[in-house]
Amino acid sequence: MGQDLVAAYPEAQALFEQADKTLGYPLSQLCFAGPEHALTDTINAQPALVTHSIAVLRALQAIQPGVSPAFVAGHSLGEYSALVAADVLEFADALKLVRERGRVMKEVGEKSPGGIAAIIGMDTATLETVCRETGVQIANYNAPGQIVIAGEKDALARAIELAKARGARHVLPIAVSVAAHSRLMAPVAREFAASVAKTPMRAPQVPVLSNVTALPLVDVDAIRRELVVQLTSPVQWIRSIEHIIAQGTTSFVELGPKDVLARLIRRIHKDAHVVSIGDVASIKALGSEQW
C-alpha cells in the first residue's frame, strides 16, 4: 500500500519518511511489505491509512497545484485525514493522535470485547428499534439500506438474529473485537480527550463535515469536542453527503486505498460524480476527468 506513490512522487516519499520518523518505527515497510497481521493491528492500521490518504493528497497537489475542495469529509478514522487536508492538523500531529486512538481502541477491545455488523436492506426505523431492544447502537449510517451496528458480543448476536427476523436482506458480521462508535468506547474517552486537548490545531481553511452532526466544524473547540464524542457516536455519513449536495457540490474525489466511500456516495446520490484515487494510475487518470 503506497509503494508505487513513493516511487513516482517525491512528496509521497517525504511523507512516508516523515511517518517513520514521527512514529519511531518503519511504518512504511509495514505498508509496503507487511506482515499483514501487523499492518491490520489497529495501532498500526490507523496511522497507515492516514499516511496513505495524505500521500495521495500530496501527490494530487503536486500535479494539480492550486486546486481546492469546496468541502472535506472523512468517515470515522478518515475524519483525521480530512482535518489534515483542511490544514487543521499538521500531518505529524495527526499521526500521533491516531496512533493513540488505535491504542485506546485496542485496549477497549481487549478489556470489553465487542463487535460490529453491517445490516443490509432494512428499514432504518425498524433497525433502530432492534438496537434499543437489544442494547446495541447504530455505529455508521453509511447509505440507504446499509447501516452498521455495534455493541457487546452477546447483545450484537441478539440484534443480528432479531434484524434477520424483522426483514434484513443480509447481515454481515465484521471480524473485529472493537465496537467503535458505541458506548463501549466511553471508558477511554476521557483519556483520549487529554491527548486531543494537547494536540495543536488551527481553524479549518475549508469546511470540514462533522461525523457526529453532519454539519461543518467551525472552530478548534468544536473540533476537539468532535474527536472525543466521535468515539461513542454514530457516523452520520448519509447526512454529511446530503449536506454537501444541498450546497450545490455533486462531484467527489475519494482519497485512499479502496473505493468504499465512492460506492456509498453513489448509493446516497445516484447522479453524483465520484472518483476514487489511491495509486499512481488513478491519480494520473483524474487529470483526464471532466469536472
Automatic annotation (TrEMBL):
Transmembrane segments: none annotated. SUPFAM superfamilies: FabD/lysophospholipase-like, Probable ACP-binding domain of malonyl-CoA ACP transacylase. SMART domains: PKS_AT. Its EC number is 2.3.1.39. It is an enzyme of class 2 (transferase). One of its GO terms (biological process) is fatty acid biosynthetic process. One of its GO terms (molecular function) is [acyl-carrier-protein] S-malonyltransferase activity. Residues 1-291 form the Malonyl-CoA:ACP transacylase (MAT) domain. It catalyses: holo-[ACP] + malonyl-CoA = malonyl-[ACP] + CoA. The active site is at residues 76, 181. Keywords: Acyltransferase, Transferase. InterPro entries: Ac_transferase_dom_sf, Acyl_transferase_dom, Acyl_Trfase/lysoPLipase, Mal-CoA-ACP_Trans/PKS_FabD, Malonyl_CoA-ACP_transAc, Malonyl_CoA-ACP_transAc_FabD, Malonyl_transacylase_ACP-bd. One of its GO terms (cellular component) is cytosol. Belongs to the fabD family. This is Malonyl CoA-acyl carrier protein transacylase. It comes from Terrybacteria sp. (strain RIFCSPHIGHO2_01_FULL_58_15).
